[in-house]
Specification:
- The complex is a heterodimer.
- By secondary structure, chain A is α/β, with parallel strands linked by helices.
- Chain A folds into 5 domains: 108 residues, Glutaredoxin (3-Layer(aba) Sandwich), CATH 3.40.30.10; 213 residues, Rossmann fold; 84 residues, Ubiquitin-like (UB roll) (Roll), CATH 3.10.20; 88 residues, Up-down Bundle (de novo design (two linked rop proteins)); 56 residues, Alpha-Beta Plaits.
- Helices cover 40% and strands 14% of the residues of chain A.
- A 5-stranded mixed β-sheet of chain A has the order 12-11-15-13-14. Chain A has a 4-stranded mixed β-sheet with strand order 2-1-3-4, with helices on one face.
- Chain A starts with 9 loop residues before the first helix and ends with a strand.
- Chain B is 48% helix and 11% strand.
- Chain B contains 8 helices and 4 strands.
- In chain B, α1 runs antiparallel to α2, α1 crosses α3 and α6 runs parallel beside α7.
- The radius of gyration of chain B is 18 Å and the shape is elongated.
- Chain B starts with a helix and ends with a helix.
- The chains are: A alpha/beta, B alpha+beta.
- Chains A and B meet through α2, β9, α13, β11 and β15 of A and α2, α4, α5, α6 and β4 of B.
């Protein structure tokens, strides 16, 4: 790439962009390999290496660029490869397949059938990425460029229109106009709370003080969520650009990105992007020839969920108090944040939404979504659904559409029971409410919340009492222990749930759970404690019969809670293949080859290894 | 147990006495020694004039720190929700059996440390385990067994 100069003004930015775009069009073809964390786990780096070697080894009529892109979202089918021209989509590609892709597709222009996505509904192979049902139902605004650019490459980001919004904001708009545009868009915080972004910025702008800060909350701790990670890994410049615009709007000259310790690749790509932006004058003093100065630093977390809470996050960045505990609010960070200065803290997705709004206008953004929730939302679709991965969809879409149209339904033909939304602070939406339009208000009304966008699909083999116990053990583990309701209330709530899953619960326990939950909601200091009872309360509201089955009948209908189940072998279905016998770590399965086996209940630890190993559905759970 | 204090000094010098970098500083020490040696914390406290109690508060608050040496290899089982509903508890149990240690412990020969994490953020591929930072997704108990087998010799012993 021909980039060797500092970008000193908007005209230079546009000239450089034209140059880069012409260069991109000159390349005859491209191979984009998804190198997000998910595809790397499935072998993407080996695929990249094979393409580089294979392409270098032969003379091709056109120049082919191999790109290591960010997450394409369809992790289930990884490693993913997209070939242009033609938008040809290959899934589950391994290094051994690369030679065939080069000779068949790149040289001869023919698809490799066996690597195309197989649509289970129609039984047909699908050639183009845009026609795969998982992608067809999406509206990709934030994830639009993830699969097209090298994440930390400023050149790639500029070639897809990057930093045009910054130039527009700095040279054509006043800070007040920027805030007004965000207000028109109706953008609300994507980290969970859904607070109107423009209002937060306005409060910070008006707050007294000359030193102000902007902070990006990338402490994505909710289990079951990885959209912030994908954005930071796949398109870090979009987050940077959003923060630059926000800093200009509120009058800040410094900012921090607080990234989770567990996300090393995101940290690497973000640092790369920051360094390159600094090198080209997009960070530093007099950005784009204007009087606007801005510096950005990365602050790495240490593995503490509570630090995703904004006041704890602030003290973690400050680093002075030892233990970063939440503090009571008001004052809100927008008035008194980092080192007591007005500070805007927004989530990764919120920041990344800012540049498209400035480019295309608030009205354009507000045209998508519902009355109170505008634009698109990225959800992590996981659990017992066929197509797991990231989906970006318009607000107001129903859970049923996501799970069945994009997600391709439930694995193994099982029946859906519920969808858990909003992480450990959210709740479980039962099958009966799947037609609920997804927006902030509707989810809150159902007792759950938007949260940062996790959707975990559960089928009939998920025990809702065990799930509530799981979430409580999570929040209990992550509670910082500063306030009593969260520390002690959480422990007692967990104790009650453990009793029930062990078959030792009593009906009165349910009342106690409700009372304890109410106390925690009313009196905990921060959102962690206030929202911790949510998973318990929603499961109790929608799945009371499951609680009662555990308490009264001493039975776990889903077959999960160990104290209440037994594994047995159906002798009519058992072929005596011996897989379960070999899989059993306790030596509890007995039998001779080709004869039906038996499980010794004395020895059985109920680990379920036999169930997992059996290919003939002969292991039953009672 | 003596540690190379020069290494500690170099790290302290790199980050200086900046409160916002204290977490990073401790992380580098933790990475270098595979735990936070007491001598190192004392040195940071002295050089940066930070109360030792505050450093200990940080060391015990954040999950990424260890106060005892970690093993040569780190096995980390994801216990996130998506992994949980797809059988993470079974994976952890199997890993504990194979390595002969409980979550949070290091094997007596110092080879393995077994840890759990509340989410690794690759939820679409659950259940998930990392070994020395490498991700292994779509696991079941049989695949965990394959992944964690120590060496052919030890493996043979186990089967006898």
């Amino acid at each position: 790439m021909k980039m060797h100069r500092s970008i000193t003004d908007p005209a230079a930015l546009e000239a450089l962009r034209r140059e880069l775009m012409a260069e991109g069009q000159a390349a005859g073809a491209s191979v984009s390999v998804c190198c997000g964390t998910g595809c790397r786990a499935s072998g993407a780096l080996e695929v990249v290496e094979a393409f580089k070697q294979g392409l270098a080894a032969r003379e091709l009529p056109v120049k082919v660029n191999t790109r290591m892109t960010g997450c394409h979202g369809f992790c289930e089918q990884g490693p993913l490869v997209v070939l242009e021209p033609g938008n040809i989509f290959y899934c589950r590609v391994q290094a051994a397949d690369v030679e065939e892709i080069i000779s068949r597709t790149i040289v001869e222009g023919q698809p490799v059938e066996r690597l195309l996505y197989l649509d289970s509904a129609s039984g047909r192979r699908i050639l183009r990425e845009e026609n795969v049902p998982f992608y067809r139902g999406q509206e990709r605004l934030l994830l639009a460029h993830n699969g097209r650019i090298e994440p930390a490459s400023l050149a790639d980001y500029l070639a897809v229109g990057g930093y045009a919004a910054l130039a527009k904001a700095l040279t054509e708009m006043t800070p007040e106009q920027v805030i007004a545009e965000i207000k028109v868009s109706g953008l609300r915080g994507r980290g969970g709370g859904g607070f109107p972004t423009a209002l937060k910025w306005e409060i910070c702008r008006r707050a007294e003080g000359t030193t102000k800060y902007v902070v990006c909350n990338a402490d994505e701790g909710d289990p079951g969520c990885f959209q912030d990670r994908s954005l930071l890994e796949g398109n870090p410049h979009s987050v940077l650009e959003g923060m630059l615009i926000g800093a200009y709007a509120v009058g800040a000259e410094a900012g921090y990105v607080y990234v989770r310790h567990e996300y090393p690749l995101a940290i690497a790509h973000l640092s790369g992007a920051i360094n390159e932006a600094r090198e080209y004058g997009l960070l530093g003093r007099g950005i784009l020839g204007t009087g606007f100065n801005f510096e950005l630093k990365i602050s790495r977390g240490g593995g503490a969920f509570v630090c995703g809470e904004e006041t704890a996050l602030i003290s973690s960045i400050e680093g002075i108090t030892g233990e970063p505990n939440p503090r009571p609010r008001p004052p809100y960070p927008a008035v008194q944040g980092l080192w007591g200065c007005p500070t805007v803290i927004n989530n990764v997705k919120t920041w990344a939404t800012v540049p498209p709004i400035i480019n295309k206008g608030g009205q354009w953004f507000a045209a998508t979504g519902t009355a109170g929730s505008k634009g698109t939302m990225i959800f992590s679709l996981t659990g017992k659904v066929n197509n797991t991965g990231l989906v970006e969809v318009p607000m107001g879409i129903t859970l049923r559409e996501i799970v069945f149209n994009l997600g391709g339904g439930i694995r193994g033909g099982k029946k859906i029971k519920a969808v858990q939304t909003g992480g450990p602070a959210g709740g479980c939406i039962p099958e009966a409410l799947l037609d609920l339009p997804l927006d902030y208000e509707q989810l809150t009304e159902a007792g759950s919340m938007m949260g940062s966008g996790g959707l975990i699909v559960m089928d009939e083999t998920t025990c809702m009492v065990d799930l509530a116990r799981y979430f409580l053990s999570f929040t209990q583990d992550e509670s910082c222990g500063k306030c009593t309701p969260c520390r002690e209330g959480g422990a007692q709530l967990l104790h009650l749930l453990e009793k029930i899953t062990k078959g030792q619960g009593a009906e009165e326990d349910l009342e106690l759970i409700a009372a304890l939950s109410a106390a925690m909601q009313d009196s905990s200091l921060c959102a962690l404690g206030k929202l911790a009872p949510n998973p318990v309360l929603t499961t109790l509201r929608f799945f009371r019969d499951e609680y009662l089955a555990h308490i009264v009948e001493k039975r776990c209908p889903a077959g999960v809670c160990r104290s209440l189940i037994r594994y047995v072998i159906d002798s009519s279905a058992c072929t005596g293949c011996g897989r379960c016998r070999r899989a059993c770590p306790a030596g509890a399965v007995q039998g001779t080859k080709k004869e039906p086996h038996l499980i010794d209940q004395e020895k059985c630890t109920r680990c379920g290894a036999c169930l997992e190993a059996c290919r003939f559905a002969a292991v039953l759970v009672n | 147990m003596g540690i190379d204090l020069e290494k500690v000094d170099r790290i302290i010098e790199k980050y200086g006495n900046d409160a916002t970098l204290c977490l990073e500083l401790l992380q580098e020490i933790n990475g270098t020694f595979r735990y936070l040696p007491r001598e190192a914390l004392v040195r940071v406290a002295e050089k940066n004039r930070t109360p030792l109690s505050q450093l200990y508060a940080m060391a015990t608050f954040y999950k990424s720190f260890n106060l005892t040496p970690r093993g040569e290899h780190e096995v980390c089982v994801c216990m996130g929700t998506a992994c949980h509903v797809r059988g993470a508890p079974r994976i952890l149990e199997r890993a504990e059996e194979i390595l002969g240690i409980r979550a949070g412990e290091t094997s007596a020969d110092g080879k393995y440390t077994l840890q759990t994490v509340n989410c690794l953020g690759a939820c679409a591929l659950g259940p998930l385990v990392t070994v020395d930072g490498q991700y292994h997704g779509k696991l079941n108990t049989a695949r965990v067994e394959k992944l964690l087998r120590r060496s052919p010799d030890e493996d043979a012993q186990e089967h006898n």
